[in-house]
Amino acid sequence: MQLIGEYPVALDDKGRMRLPTALLRQLSAGQANEGEGAGYEFVVNRGFEKCLTLYPKPVWDGITAKLSRLNRFNDRNRAFIRSFYLGASPITTDSADRILLQKPLMDYAGLAKEAILVAMDDRIEIWSPDEHRRLSTLDSNDFADLANNVMGGGMDGVGAEFEG
């Protein structure tokens, strides 16, 4: 699954937002449930920064399968697992392609009337417009340095992820 794009959306007073059609089209054909009135299944949780992360259910299932193999006798593993599941909630789109975000999650991400959906590979981040704007102000030189370190530049010309 290769989701891309940024989508401004409105939130109503109940915390519902309509997922953009252009984004839903990118989901695999098998993602939507069968039957009349059935929708797309997701799990939403707290993101690594001040955002929410919306996982298509098959992606969530793959991640949780990996988490289930972690040694829970290791304190760092337990701490990560607890933090990862914090606030996690299953959600399904309604007949109008809307999802309902719980108030504690909205408070965590600073969401009110608007949000920015950022599709990234197999998941969607949900940002408040202010946090998204703050995050988007990365200087082009800093971005070049980050790209150099992450994608294979590093100090010796080879990023840590690509070293043998």
The radius of gyration computed from the alpha-carbon positions, rounded to a whole number of angstroms, is 18 Å
Number of domains: 2
Q: Which geometry do the CA atoms define? A: globular
**Termini separation:** 27 Å
Q: Indicate the mean pLDDT.
A: 88
The share of residues in extended strands comes to 25-35%
Physical arrangement of strands within the biggest beta sheet: 1-7-8-4-3-5
CATH superfamily of the largest domain: Transcriptional regulator MraZ domain
Question: What is the CATH third-level topology name of the largest domain?
Answer: Chemotaxis protein chec
Helix fraction by DSSP (H/I, runs of at least 4): 25-40%
- Largest sheet: number of strands, sense, barrel closure: 6 strands, antiparallel
Low-confidence residue ranges: none
The SS-based structural class is alpha+beta
CATH architecture of the largest domain: 3-Layer(aba) Sandwich
Total DSSP helices: 6
Query: How would you spell out the order of helices and strands?
Result: EEHEEHHEEHEEHH
The assembly state of the depicted protein chains is single chain
The overall strand count is: 8
